[in-house]
Every structure is written in C-alpha cells, then in structure tokens.
Specification:
Blueprint lengths: L1 E7 L5 H12 L7 E7 L3 E3 L5 E3 L12 E4 L14 H12 L3 E5 L2 H7 L7 E2 L6 H7 L4 E2 L5 E4 L2 E4 L4 H14 L1 H11 L14 H4 L6 H12 L7 H8 L3 H12 L3 H18 L4 H8 L4 H8 L10
Parallel strand pairs: 1-2, 1-5, 5-6, 6-10, 7-8
Antiparallel strand pairs: 3-4, 9-10
Helix pairs in contact: 1-5, 5-6, 8-9, 8-11, 11-12, 12-13
C-alpha cells in the first residue's frame, strides 16, 4: 500500500488536485493507494471558488509513499502560501527516501523547500521564466508535460498532472495497470518523461477495437518475453491472420512491432537512468544488444511479424 498525501495550499487549482487524485484513487481500495489530504487550515479555498476540506495532521510516511503538491492560482493574493513547517515536511520526506511531486505552480513549493537545486524540473509554460528567475540553480525544462529527476517529479499542470500520475502508476504497477486507469478515466494519455516522447502504450491505444486492446494487454504484461504470433493469437481466440489484420487496422502496425516499441521505450528509460545499452537490452528481453542499437537508430521499428 502506497500512501499519497496531497498538500493543499490556499487557491489550489481543482484540476491540479482532482486529476492526479482520480488517477491514484482509481486503484484505491484494491491494496494500491491510500489517499490523504493535508492543509494548514482544514477549509481550503480553491481558485474556482469552491472550498475543500482537508485534515491538519500528517500521517506517518515511509520511503515508498508520495507527497503531491497541486498548483494554485498565481493571481489571487495569498495563494500558494505554505509555512516553513510544511516546507520542512517536503524536505524531510525526500531526505528520508520518499518521492515528492508537484503539479503546475506546486514546483515553487519544492523550490522553497530546497529540493530543486541542480535538478531538472518543469512547470506551466506561463510560469517557466519565473521559476528560472527564482531558482537559478534548477534546470527548468521547457514545454514538456512532466519531468522526473530521481525522487523529484514535476509537471506542467492542469491536465498534465494526470499524465504524471499515470507515469508514476506505470513505474510502480506496470504499463497495463496504467493503461487500464487511463481507459477508465477516458483520457488520451501521454507519458512524456525525461526523453520527451509519447509512450507507444498510450499513443496506440486511441482506438475502439476490443481485439486489439486485448492483444495489447497481453503484450504489455509480457513484452520482455518472446511472444510468438501463434501463441498470441491463441490467447486472443482468433487466427494469426485475423489478429494481424485487425491489430494493424487499429494501430497501424503488427503485434511484433508494438512489442518492439515497448521494449525500446523501456530500454531508453533505463539508459536515461544510467544503465548500459547491454544491460538495458537484456532487461527488456533482447538477446543481443545489437538489435536494440539497430532499433534505436531507426525512426520506426520494423513491422515484420514474428
């Protein structure tokens, strides 16, 4: 069970809060996430004029838990104000091995807590210059949906808070679970991480073919394994020819090409975290790093069926 604490500041943006809360909350009650809401005063005014209620006592947190700071309206006087004690909570949680997340203007709280120095981060495009001026030691990445740097994750705000939450779910629970949450939320999600690229898992899920979705579920849960087309077709209850045809109609590629895209994207993530090409290739299921190198060097992955 992972506890997710939302630290609410005055003037909080409802969607900055509700988007990630909906994503994590979709898995609440299933042994996945326990959501808590904390503020310095129990009644928290929002940017949209609705007052929300939060607790004033912090739960006990461990390294596996998250603190999320949703953004606030920067136009309202007093919006975003947080005491030194609240900022110390952020710094202490991170110092104890926990993850701290911000949405939109919430990045400024991380900056005030001393968590952005020397780190890559982002915020809403209207606030990027201000964040750079106030925290010159931070490496502000412009015009991306979100950035993760170790145990600090920041997003551009509004709807991109959902993208970041889905990414965190994907890292913790796997791509299939993240895809199911995205489908339940009826969002066309992208997972832009440090590599600033759209995830194949979401980019090729924007269709209505139940057969293709079923095949993608199988592939996503086992993409590091060898998946012969006959076995995949049998799992889906159709012939190889039917699966290949209908999968291509829905996604524009063969099942093998889709599997290769997932492998390459995962390998890129591992390499971005410091893994060698050889170790990344092995972890994602390639028997030879040369294949990974060839696929990385191409603009698209070969579409030959297995």
């Amino acid at each position: 069970m992972t506890t997710v604490v939302f630290l609410l500041a005055p003037g909080v943006q409802l969607l900055d809060l509700a988007g990630p809360a909906q994503a994590f909350g979709t898995l609440a009650g299933t042994g996945g996430y326990d959501l808590r809401y904390v503020a310095e005063k129990e009644d928290v005014p929002t940017a949209q004029g609705v007052t929300v209620r939060a607790g004033s006592r912090w739960p006990d947190l461990g390294p596996e838990d998250l603190i999320v700071v949703p953004g606030w309206s920067t136009r309202a006087p007093g919006a975003g104000s947080l005491s030194g004690a609240s900022l110390a909570r952020l710094a202490d949680h991170h110092g104890a091995g926990g993850t701290v997340v911000s949405v939109c203007a919430g990045a400024f709280a991380l900056g005030r807590a001393g968590l952005l120095g020397g780190r890559r981060c982002t915020t809403h495009h209207e606030l990027q210059d201000q964040l750079t001026r106030q925290y010159p030691a931070a490496a502000v990445v412009r015009d991306v949906l979100y950035v993760t740097d170790g145990r600090i994750a920041t997003s551009a705000g509004i709807a991109s808070g959902i993208d970041l939450a889905l990414h965190l779910i994907c890292v913790r629970d796997g791509p299939a679970t993240a895809a199911r949450v995205a489908r339940e939320m009826v969002v066309y999600a992208r997972r832009n991480g440090d590599e600033q690229q759209a995830s194949a898992m979401f980019r090729y899920r924007n269709h209505l073919s139940e057969l293709a979705h079923q095949a993608q579920d199988h592939i996503e849960t086992r993409f590091t394994l060898r998946l012969p087309l006959p076995a995949l077709a049998a799992d889906c209850g159709v012939s190889e020819r039917t699966l290949t045809r209908r999968f291509a109609e829905a996604t524009g590629m063969t099942p093998l090409r889709y599997q290769q895209l997932l492998r390459v994207e995962r390998a890129e993530h591992l390499i971005g975290q410091g893994a060698t090409v050889e170790s990344a290739a092995t972890e994602v299921g390639f028997t030879d790093a040369r294949m990974l190198r060839r696929l990385r060097s191409r603009e698209s992955v070969p579409s030959a069926a297995e």
